[in-house]
Amino acid sequence: MKSMIEVQNVSKTLNKRKVIQNMTFNVMKGDICGFIGPNGAGKTTLMKMATGLIKPSEGEIFINGINVQRDREKALFEVGAIIEVPVFFEYITGRKNLRNLARLNIGMDRKEQLKKVEEVLELVGLKDRGNDLVKNYSLGMKQRLGIAQSLLNNPSIVILDEPSNGLDPIGMKELRELILSLAKEFDITFFISSHLLDELQKICNKYIFIKEGCIKWIGDVNSLVIDKEKDLEEVFLDFME
Amino acid sequence: MFKSLIIYEFEKFWFKKINIVCLIAILIVNFLSLKFALQSNKAAEMTDIVFSSSLNFHITSLQEMLLTAFNAIIITFCILSFHEEYRKGNLRMTFMRGISIRKLYIAKSLVMNLNILLTILIHLIISLLIALIILPKTSSSPLYFKEGLYTISDVVFFSIRYYFLAYLSLLTFGSIIEVLSIKCKSVAGVLGLSLGFVFLNFIYISYVSFLLKDYPISDPMVLKYNSISLVFVQAKGAAYFAAGFTDVFLYSMIIIYLIFKSLSYLAFTNKNYLE
């Protein structure tokens, strides 16, 4: 199976503190991989490195076999992402925001870009609200708009940093269903960070547990829950101790 | 791809309502200038440089507003295009796409320069129209730092040079605010440092005039020292250049622009975004 995200011996030092320590793992094609750790564990930092926003102090990250640091443009060509919160222009419509961002789609003419905008709005369930100003969107709708922008460039990998932050239970359920349907219909690989374990338990087939910048455990769902009476939270807490 | 980046940046620029307000403000600025010109004209002769007519109002009004209104517009443009987008996260979504950040910066800069040009051209057109309709029509006019009265062809030549250096001074000021916008963590910080920069310029001019008090202000050495002050260039340097007195202001603006543009480029394309 093809490795979509390959993290090799990556470390990152910020303000003289090593926030990521010698991390190595792979996310394979078709995986919905949960990246789990407590606040401050280094989840966002690793995701920022994977999306080329910051560079590792040591080690290398490959996306689709291409080194992100050496060939950023090529490596990120098929990547869609939300890091921290998606930020849009609040006083224009969601559709206009996406139409503007669609201009960054290399190799698509304007007609195709506009078609793509309608497609992703439909996918995230915002087609009818596309002409509303973003300032009038709920947090859940903004998050869905964020996912819509991450799908604009037909990504084969989507990286989501705490996507369910601030969502109500209905919003979380909708997000979960959306991720599952996108993974199934479009064969998209997902790499999702969260500290909401229950959420990830329902969608991920693979987990990476981290604490203080170090990997504590990597594996698939089946190899994780040895004792069937334990839920993911209990297992996670065992690893964190 | 580059064309798409230009359109992407151009659209974003005009999504911001404050930028549109800035453009509308030029009309108000022109009317304020006109009010001032009508008052000045009452006490001035047609041969006086302060006398505004259909031939020179576009120069006198720009001279009055360059240091104040136009610099304020530049600060607004830069804060919205650089500080807000870079610091608040709009650009994060762009940086994560498979596009060249270097090309994105060039596109952003070109769009900014184009919009500043548009702003100054709108000022020119409005001031010419206002002057033609309201101010006295004359066939000749005095020009800054030039003796006598000049006909329309001389005024056109003077205006092109004056507007060119005024535009270059705005680009230079913009490049300084760009660096501050990327580096500062808050809007208050950008505003404070921008105003501090203008204030420092005034102190520098006073210091130069104190040090070289035995020399006339139009002495080449005094002009050379003053040429590194953006405030002096906007207040008098552009007119000295337009009058053909010296090119030192042109060279200093180009050098300062290139220095700050390079710093801005390095800050924008930093491989550790917001770290």
From TrEMBL, chain A:
<dbReference type="InterPro" id="IPR003593">
    <property type="entry name" value="AAA+_ATPase"/>
</dbReference>
<dbReference type="GO" id="GO:0005524">
    <property type="term" value="F:ATP binding"/>
</dbReference>
<dbReference type="InterPro" id="IPR003439">
    <property type="entry name" value="ABC_transporter-like_ATP-bd"/>
</dbReference>
<keyword id="KW-0547">Nucleotide-binding</keyword>
<dbReference type="InterPro" id="IPR017871">
    <property type="entry name" value="ABC_transporter-like_CS"/>
</dbReference>
<dbReference type="InterPro" id="IPR027417">
    <property type="entry name" value="P-loop_NTPase"/>
</dbReference>
<keyword id="KW-0813">Transport</keyword>
<dbReference type="GO" id="GO:0016887">
    <property type="term" value="F:ATP hydrolysis activity"/>
</dbReference>
<dbReference type="Pfam" id="PF00005">
    <property type="entry name" value="ABC_tran"/>
</dbReference>
<feature type="domain" description="ABC transporter">
    <location>
        <begin position="5"/>
        <end position="237"/>
    </location>
</feature>
<keyword id="KW-0067">ATP-binding</keyword>
<comment type="similarity">
    <text>Belongs to the ABC transporter superfamily.</text>
</comment>
<protein>
    <submittedName>
        <fullName>ABC transporter ATP-binding protein</fullName>
    </submittedName>
</protein>
Automatic annotation (TrEMBL), chain B:
<keyword id="KW-0472">Membrane</keyword>
<keyword id="KW-0812">Transmembrane</keyword>
<feature type="transmembrane region" description="Helical">
    <location>
        <begin position="155"/>
        <end position="180"/>
    </location>
</feature>
<keyword id="KW-1133">Transmembrane helix</keyword>
<feature type="transmembrane region" description="Helical">
    <location>
        <begin position="20"/>
        <end position="38"/>
    </location>
</feature>
<feature type="transmembrane region" description="Helical">
    <location>
        <begin position="65"/>
        <end position="83"/>
    </location>
</feature>
<feature type="transmembrane region" description="Helical">
    <location>
        <begin position="238"/>
        <end position="260"/>
    </location>
</feature>
<feature type="transmembrane region" description="Helical">
    <location>
        <begin position="187"/>
        <end position="212"/>
    </location>
</feature>
<feature type="transmembrane region" description="Helical">
    <location>
        <begin position="104"/>
        <end position="135"/>
    </location>
</feature>
<protein>
    <submittedName>
        <fullName>ABC transporter permease</fullName>
    </submittedName>
</protein>
